[in-house]
TrEMBL record:
One annotated GO biological process: carbohydrate metabolic process
A Pfam short name: Thioredox_DsbH
Domain Spermatogenesis-associated protein 20-like TRX residues, every copy: 4-143
SUPFAM superfamilies linked: Six-hairpin glycosidases, Thioredoxin-like
UniProt-recorded name of the protein: Thioredoxin domain-containing protein
Length: 668
């Protein structure tokens, strides 16, 4: 297709000069239906001719311009459709939309108009019915403005622990009681919402909430959503049983799920949680890590032009790769049959028959069957590595790297894996060296070049990740960088009138309406992660000013949080931490002396607490007096100072006592 532009002044100026409408296509590299529409329509000479004659064609990568995607997704919402990608929107030269949709086929089918017919009709309307186009554009602009600020006119409210519990129970009612997860097919992991159920359980919401969480985590880990050979989670399940996924793998999904499974391990240690975390970290290290340290954005669903081809198996392929005994065990374990559970007789691997059942059937010890399966999985993985791999989008996005840094940092603490913290630190060092100059954060880095000014989600996600990384390494440079990012984010994105955050910097001129960062969708909004980071920074730095904006923002969103918790899951996590008033623990002593206390804290589910460390052997006595309000650390021992609302308890020197205090309700 000729004449296709990136979003920028050249394309927008041409639209204004030629008085042509803009055809805006928004997608991303791992999007299956984006590839389909590109092949069917954009690569068709006849359709390309219609596009070039009637429109200025602009292609946007939604991973690089989330603000544009956020705004123009509102078009299909206003039209009563579900959003998604590819997003296809038609704009006036002054960027007001007048029609939109998602995927359009090359001819009428699926109840959708064929793309050529749509192009001809809209071109005709542009030339012959300008009044109708103008009216529609005006209505859309007004509607988008209302969508962008939805809920921001509400009076501030006061969030309570009871609200968190009520939110958890409201969300639990939407969960599948058999297979876990929210709703039916298609089913998404929604890790932040699952994590909020754990927060509600912690606040006294009852064990039914924990049971619902564990059911979800178990079913996801045993189903086809999880890559049973290579680790890592696919995007979503097309069915309610987590059996058949949409095969793309996103960095942000795996980042959030790493964090969630690590939290589950703190609540109740299980071999399955450890297995999932270890294998997912290995997947990220193997497939998604740039040699310079940053993490890549996505892995495609397709290989050799077929969705899922890399991941699925047929019985004859299993038998060719394994010994006869191994093959029969694997076929039974993963439910691989000639009929398959996917297309054309192929099977997505899922755990159908548990190891214990296989052991009973075969009259063998469970350990022997597990060893055989482990060896078989390694052999199948090696065989799969010979296949053509799915494509990979090797963009390094600042925000998504922040999310993975956050997940790896917690996992490194929970599972005592300092090598995972080093993996996170390499990514952090890359982003800080190549994408942040102390005042300006870049969104994207690829082919040795940084580009596009960062959005709120980049500042918020990275600040959150760096506060988590500080707690895994106690390297002050990460805390300092998080502090600087948070302050800069407020300066760039805070809207004083609305008491809320904009997605893009104030005054950005290529947006038809101001875009506010409100909802948590597949990944958290920048407002949510920034709020999370600010609460942690208040605890870790002692700077109470870091709580100013979280308090105002959570108060402003109170009604929305309580009424629609599924839309604000990560903000719920940040708000839950804010309730405890910047809770923190400062460890004092040599690293060896505080080690037992630190290990106890890392094993304990205490998500509202942030953890810092002062090496007393390297800290002047006067500074220790200042830090600990005149209380000297216990001579020769490590001590933990547990603080809520900037008020600290007496130093704790016993690990078991510290764990008890971390799980105790505030004020007890």
């Amino acid at each position: 297709m000729r004449d296709r532009y990136p979003w920028g002044e050249e394309a927008l100026a041409r639209a204004r000069a030629e008085k042509k409408p803009i055809l805006l296509s928004v997608g991303y590299s791992a999007c299956h239906w984006c590839h389909v529409m590109a092949h069917e329509s954009f690569e068709s000479p006849d359709i390309a001719r219609l596009m070039n004659e009637g429109f200025i064609n602009i292609k946007v990568d939604r991973e690089e311009r989330p603000d544009l995607d956020q705004i123009y997704q509102g078009v299909v919402q206003l039209m009563g459709q579900g959003g998604g990608w590819p997003l296809t929107v038609f704009l006036t030269p002054d960027l007001r939309p007048f029609y939109g949709g998602t995927y359009f086929p090359p001819e009428d089918r699926y109840g959708r108009p064929g793309f050529p017919r749509l192009l001809s009709a809209l071109s005709d309307a542009w030339h012959n019915k300008p009044g109708e186009i103008e009216d529609q554009a005006q209505r859309f602009q007004e509607g988008l403005g209302e969508l962008s600020t939805h809920g921001l006119d509400a009076a501030p409210g006061h969030l309570s622990a009871e609200d968190i519990v009520a939110m958890g129970h409201a969300m639990a009612k939407r969960m599948d009681p058999v297979h876990g997860g929210f709703g039916g097919a298609p089913k998404f992991p929604n890790p932040m919402n699952v994590a909020l159920l754990l927060r509600a359980w912690r606040r006294g919401g009852g064990d039914s909430l924990k049971i619902a969480v564990f059911r979800t985590l178990e079913r996801m880990a045993l189903g086809g959503l999880y890559d049973q050979l290579g680790g890592g989670f696919h995007r979503y399940s097309v069915d309610e049983r987590w059996r058949v996924p949409h095969f793309e793998k996103m960095l942000y999904d795996n980042a959030q799920l790493l964090h969630l499974y690590a939290e589950a391990e703190q609540v109740e240690s299980r071999p399955l949680w450890r297995k999932v975390v270890e294998e997912t970290v290995e997947y990220v290290r193997r497939e998604m890590t740039d040699p310079a340290g940053g993490f890549y954005a996505t892995q495609d669903a397709d290989s050799e032009g077929e969705e899922g081809k890399f991941f699925v198996w047929r019985p004859e392929e299993i038998r060719a790769a394994l010994s006869p005994g191994q093959a029969e065990t694997v076929l039974r374990h993963f439910g691989i049959t000639p009929q398959g559970n996917f297309e054309h007789g192929a099977t997505v691997l899922e755990v159908v028959v548990p190891v214990a059942t296989l052991a009973t059937e075969q009259g063998r010890p469970v350990e022997a069957v597990q060893e055989e399966l482990d060896a078989a999985r390694r052999s199948l993985f090696d065989a799969r590595e010979q296949r053509v791999k799915p494509g990979r989008d090797d963009k390094i996005l600042a925000g998504w790297n922040g999310l993975m840094i956050r997940g790896l940092a917690l996992a490194s603490r929970v599972f005592d894996r300092p090598d995972w913290a080093k993996l996170a630190a390499r990514a952090a060092d890359f982003v800080l060296a190549n994408m942040w100059d102390g005042t300006r954060l870049l969104r994207s880095h690829q082919d040795g070049q940084g580009r596009i000014d960062g959005f709120l989600e980049d500042y918020g996600d990275l600040a959150s990740g760096l506060t988590a990384l500080y707690q895994a390494t106690f390297d002050a440079k990460y805390l300092d960088a998080a502090d600087a990012l948070a302050h800069r984010a407020v300066a760039l994105f805070w809207d004083e009138e609305k008491q809320a955050y904009l997605s893009a910097p104030r005054g950005q001129k290529d947006l038809v309406v101001a875009a506010f960062s409100l909802f948590d969708n597949a990944f958290p909004s920048g407002a949510s992660t920034l709020t999370e980071a600010q609460v942690a920074l208040a605890a870790l730095t002692g700077d109470v000013a870091h709580l100013d904006h979280p308090e105002h923002y959570v108060a402003k969103l109170h009604d929305q949080l309580v009424r629609n918790p599924l839309g604000y899951g990560h903000l719920g996590l940040a708000a839950d931490s804010l309730l405890d008033g910047a809770s923190g623990v400062t460890f004092a002593g040599t690293r060896e002396a505080v080690s037992p206390l630190l290990a106890a804290a890392n094993r304990t589910y205490a998500p509202v607490f942030s953890f810092g460390w002062h090496d007393t052997s390297a800290t002047p006595p006067a500074r220790l007096q200042e830090l600990f309000e005149g209380r000297d650390p216990v001579e020769g021992k490590g001590a933990a100072y547990l603080c809520r609302g900037f008020v600290c308890e007496r130093p704790i020197t016993d690990a078991a006592t510290l764990a008890e205090r971390l799980v105790a309700a505030p004020g007890h």
